[in-house]
């Protein structure tokens, strides 16, 4: 087997596994006309309806989709205000069954009252202190009081991990940098940064497809000195496709841009989950080179080795039955839609 067909695992540096079962959900009562309305009418109604069984099968289907795209590491950001306790264990367990690596975070917020923020913080503490692979999650500065942001930063420092937070995704969160700059550190994971006008320490995660879908603008991540990684923000885990889109968007504002820049963003995700560097993905195409891949859709893994185990062989997952996972997730999607 030619070495130009093999790479380490890919990383989805910002995901929401709970949204895998959201596809096909009933339309909101009114069509959202702005980013804050998309949050209020779609995502915040959805996350409030989740229970642990829905979370489990949504995460397992999301992990399966990642595996089928050569993504061996997922940095997840989770919210389920009516099923907080134990939710991170459920996600970690679902990913482990498929064999995909996950770094969990519970996104705390004061939008359901400060008590829910405290419960969310405790879920982060409980999961990470028990040895779970995680970051302390925060939804976004604009839905948190200063006290909540300080508590999250303090817990993260105490546990020796970073904070995973949405930053300046829309104009509504443009005030975030001033409030986060006294708290943020190099181990923070900053999703989006579309409207960020200054620098904050941390890794910036660029989510090109999600930004287009929410009409929040182009983040132009090349303007920052920070490490930049790529995420899907819940739109599956087809990271080669995110790379292709990241390159096309970069090129749309700079005709001299090359695929190597977006490729470096894709590769930078591995700095957040260094264990993925040991994973071996054998692809359907060679060479696995940015100049080829930027112009080659549909490249898929044939075989994947994670932590020494073959978890995908001849394009098929070895640990779970994909048809069963899809059927169980569809059942949970029906339960979820009935609640909306
Ligand atoms: Zn997100």
Descriptive report:
This protein is of the alpha/beta class. It has eleven helices and 14 strands. A six-stranded parallel sheet has the order 5-6-7-8-9-10. A five-stranded antiparallel sheet has the order 1-11-12-13-14, with no helix packed on it. A hairpin with a 2-residue loop joins β12 (301-306) and β13 (309-313). The mean pLDDT is 96.
Give a brief rundown of this model.
Helices cover 40% and strands 17% of the residues. The strands form three sheets. The protein has a six-stranded parallel beta sheet. A five-stranded antiparallel beta sheet has the order 1-11-12-13-14, with no helix packed on it.
By DSSP, the count of extended strands is 14
Strand composition percent: 15-25%
- Rg, please? 19 Å
State the helicity in percent bands.
25-40%
State the order of secondary-structure elements, H for helix, E for strand: EEHHEHEEHEHEHEEHEHHEHEEEH
- List cofactors, ions and other ligands: zinc ion
Query: Which segments are poorly predicted (pLDDT under 50) over 5 or more consecutive residues?
Result: none
Net shape = globular
Major beta sheet summary: 6 strands, parallel
Strand order of the largest sheet: 5-6-7-8-9-10
SSE-based structural type: alpha/beta
